[in-house]
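Section: protein folds

Sequence with per-residue tokens
===
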Amino acid sequence: MGHTGMVIGLLFSLAFLGLASIDALGIAAMPVLLTQHRPFARSFTFLGGSFAALMLVGLVLARGFGTIVLRFEADHSWLVPAAEIAAGLVLLVVAATLFWQLKTGRTSVEPSRSIVKRLQLGNIQLFILGGIIVTVQSIADVVFVIAMIRVGQLDLSAVGMVVAVTTYAVAALVLQLAVVAAYRLAPEKQRLKTLDKVHALLAAYSHQALICISSALGCALLIGGLLGFGR
């Protein structure tokens, strides 16, 4: 029962972190794809590439770095606290930077012209583009890296590890899926207006959520790291 509770707690934590992992480019790409020919097929092709990349990078981090950290942790007691402090500082800097950008009106979730142009590509290239964008963002995302390394440290079975990474990946794509669902469920004549409203709402949510989550997790990691050195 204790093990089951731990697994459920882990999945809830990963789902929460996935929801807090904001893919600004992915959110911005959805309105562009949904106004193209065969909008749903192209949207899910892009999202399929994103999902595949999240799974691949997540499993590599969990199975690779997670195992390495677990091996070194016993002999190098400073490693984990130092990593937590570094990650905490990075997240606090991210939160402060985004807060300043919001105050000065410098934030935007609109895709650049180059991204819009690339979103006109064929299905195979679109799938690859979705994977490349998510891969780059995931590697730069401290929350994702820490979450996957933690999964690797739990010594889960292969199936358990796949389920854990899948939970994070699905949660991380929920916002993009919400844009597609809103567009699909809206009356045909109201689709463009609904798309604009949902996109604006998610854009505002993504900025606020990223500030809150980065601040809270950054403080928690910083405090945990400092306490770890004191043990």
About this structure: The mean pLDDT is 78. The longest helix spans residues 191-230. DSSP finds ten helices and no strands in the chain.
